[in-house]
Amino acid sequence: TQLLEQSPQFLSIQEGENLTVYCNSSSVFSSLQWYRQEPGEGPVLLVTVVTGGEVKKLKRLTFQFGDARKDSSLHITAAQPGDTGLYLCAGAHNNDMRFGAGTRLTVKP
Amino acid sequence: NAGVTQTPKFQVLKTGQSMTLQCAQDMNHEYMSWYRQDPGMGLRLIHYSVGAGITDQGEVPNGYNVSRSTTEDFPLRLLSAAPSQTSVYFCASSGGGGTEAFFGQGTRLTVV
Predict the structure, then answer these.
(1) d(CA A100, CA A9)
(2) d(CA A13, CA A77)
(3) Distance, CA of A7 to CA of B103 (rounded, Å)
């Protein structure tokens, strides 16, 4: 059982659609991060959320941290083919960082 | 600025062989870690280190050894490779405490 559960596992949509992916846990995290990974590369940080209820926007991407700091969501508005990739959430756990299994997003032109 | 450098990028081993995956960072980060990535499993933590001379086990440590003799280097050793260790391995470094993790480009390891 993973510490962080991400859903959906796969998502395929058309360009211009909106989408939301989720990251849930029964544990409380001091901070939670979202990464994006492209084939053949390591993950790259998109955002870090720290405060319960926090909302951060990065162009068409909106990140929210749950009030109890156990879950997070990533909403993409008007998705573009360039958004295609694996989206991973990660939580600071004791002295280490744990990752979810990811949501693999495909945006078709 | 090189960031995190992993070598090799690809490796094929026979069952029972040993090898060391190299990882070096030039950001003076205290925290370094090794993950393996398998389809549908995301990144699973193998071992991590919070500073030179200090290492600890992650979620899936069996079959792997690490050491941290310097701040810059954090090699991962497979003593006797098994097919179950076929995976993509990533090294990461960060300032710790939930700060941004910087990843290497990965090592694709196949054990036959």
Answers:
(1) 10
(2) 12
(3) 24
Is the backbone of residue B2 left (phi > 0), alpha (psi -120 to 50) or beta? alpha
Decide if pLDDT at B1 tops 90: no
**pLDDT tens digits, residue range B4-42?**
999 999 999 999 999 999 999 999 999 999 999 998 778
Residue B53, phi-psi category: left (phi > 0), alpha (psi -120 to 50), beta (remainder): left
Q: Which residues of A touch B98 (CB under 8 A)?
A: 29-31, 33, 48, 50, 92, 97
Q: Which amino acid is at B97?
A: G
Interchain contact, B43 vs A99, CB within 8 Å: yes
Q: Which two tokens stand for residue B53?
A: 């001379």
Mean pLDDT of chain A: 93
Per-residue pLDDT of B43-83, as tens digits, reads: 999 999 999 999 999 999 999 999 999 999 999 999 999 99
What are the tokens at B48? 């991590």
CA nearest to B24, candidates B48, B2, B49, B50: B2
